[in-house]
Amino acid sequence: MFKKEIVRGAISISVGVVIWEILTRLLLENELLIPPPSSVLRTFWTLAASGKLNKHFEATLIEFAYGFSTACTLGIIIGYFMGMYKWFDEIMDPWIATLYSIPVIAIVPLIIIWFGIGMLSKIIVVFKITVVAIILNTAAGIKNLDPVWLELAQSLRLTGWQTTYKIRFPGALPYIITGMRLGVGRALLAVVVAELMASNAGLGYLLRDSSETWDSPKLFVTVILLAVIGLVSFNLIKRLEQRMAPWRQSAEWSSEA
Amino acid sequence: MEALTRNLNSTILRVGSVLAGLVFWHFLATTVINDTTFLVSPIVVVATGYEMLFVNGELYPHLFASSWIFFYGFLLAIVAGVPLGFLMALSQIVRDYVNPWMTTLYTTPRIAFAPVLLLWFGVGGGAKVSIVFLGCVFPILINSYYGMRVVNREYVELARSFRLNSRALFFKILLPASVPFVLAGVRLAIGRGLTGVAIAEWFGATEGLGYLIFFAGQTLNIPTLFVGVAVFAALGIFGFEVVRRVEAYATPWKTDARGS
Amino acid sequence: MAGPVLELRNLNKEIPRPGGDPFIIFKNINLTVRDGEFVSIVGPSGCGKTTLLRVINGLMPHSGGQILIDGKSAEEVNQELLMGFVFQGASLLPWRTSLKNVLLGVEGRGQNAKDTEQRARKHLELVGLSGFENYYPHQLSGGMQQRVNLARALAVNPRILLMDEPFAALDAQTRNFMQLELLRIWRETRKTVIFVTHMIAEAILLSDRVVVFTHRPGTVRSEFQVPLPRPRTMDIKSDPRFLDLENVVWKQIEEEVNAAGGFAKL
User: Fold this and answer.
1) Is the confidence metric ipTM above 0.95 for this complex?
2) Which of A53, B33, B134, B239 could form a disulfide with A47 if both were Cys (CB 3.0 to 4.6 A apart)?
């Protein structure tokens, strides 16, 4: 037995695809404007079999992984110190606020000028996009710790290091994960933007390539692939958030992605 | 007195941090790098900004072009997003059928739609406005939906205990309870809308702030590039502040206006 | 008014459980409330007293039996605004001022707007809050919020006032003041009140009659007329008759709790 909403969702999607197929077959002579789902599927198969898709996918994934892991490491460290020391917070705050208020897409040309069109510039873009949310959330998590917990640590005569990894870090963890989640959605957008503007590999490159050569089926394959990646990573992180911080009710998904 | 000293200290730290950064930037640009196609001193950036704003007025056509696109896309997103969000909250059937589409569209990096939209609408205003629209509509829609879904059950019971009809239930309970959430969505939409403007103008435009930045990037005109980025940041801060004021005015019962 | 204002006959409430016996919340409730009477319902936690109030007000359907209001079945008069409900939490709408909150039940019912506003003001005055008309709930203390809550329920001029542990969330001192205030307001308005509480002393202090519920599934275990003269003050709490009654009721509730599996299960 499936739940009613799942059945309805499946109906909604399948009916949409069928209508799309019928309309494109009946109404459109050429496949330029909207290719029918069947030809999108065929193109997907060809691209996947030739290994092209794999190559671009891998490039995007590596850029994302490097940028994101660097952002997590540095972001948590910086955020921790900002939460712990007021003076450090004061020094960092204006710069982080500036960094935060610049739309990533506006800064991409500059990053490309500075770091070239290779992978490094995309890694930097992913880093820029994800690090701010992680820093701010880690700092907030450290600052908002219940003072009773710290008194508890003191009464148990925990050392500074013990207090950090037994009390402060787990206490701030839900915030840190929220920061990571906020970063991921935007990072995917940013890395695609950067690839689109200047690159020789990656899904963004594929997007530009297919758009410039008016290869609609390929364009649609890329768009749908990006949709699937977005959907999967979004749900993965939601699960992760529920698992790693089950004591905190899951933050609703209305947050910025 | 102590508080005063602390405030003073805070100001000194902040101003000092910014000044030190600017000085470092200046020397980095003028002595270490010394290549105006790579990095220029903040002084040059400010001078360029002044010139574009007050001397030759080069900035204004771009500013107007971008504002126009932003305004229409943003407005359309509110007009479409708020009612659809409410409808999804009120009707299980609408929710179940719309949800898979919405989640998919929402989680897809929206730049992926840009080439498709250009394919359909051409490089005219339609494509640009719809790119901005796609960026803005989801935070507004989702927050409207969420706001109406999580209305305190007690308020609904209260309405029933006073025998309010469904019209009164909507206008007196559900709608006002959702307002803070809708506004939080609108606030999120500003940043995404601005990104949408930049994306739209990068793809095919001859004017606009996005065009200005990308053209400057292509021609290695670093001062103009910096000015464009700064204007974008300023617009984002300005828009945020406007919505914050609207929030304070529209929801006076909220001591701290916080969104999701 | 010859007949009773409210009559419950064999009232049942159960909630169906998928693949199991229904969950019985209360059963066979028989209760008659006279016009102008103040009746309290006390009982162990989870005995269904709050649910009973919601069922009486039509917020939930019942599963069997009858509710008669002035001799007419409740279904028949369900759309009429015959009851005022004072909720436990502060159910004030945060976007409405005190005055606007009191207006919620009376506005837009075809009467002159000026008259309804006058009526709302009068009721705010009755609960001692004149001068606070334009305050938002978050600007009021817990006790003041419950006063607005009470004014809102009274403003619709209900036949019956239903109160669901209205003072439970208040601190002990504020609660005492509010009990005295309720005694005064009841004296001035002579409303029929059904008051649900888990505090025995509160029930005795306020009521003409105290109804004790059994543990779940709840039903009426016993009823006591309160043999204390009015007007009452806090001094009455040291009256031997008060203490005797408190003792008897407490014994019964203790028995019910033990029968349900003891305090630890609460």
Assistant:
1) no
2) A53
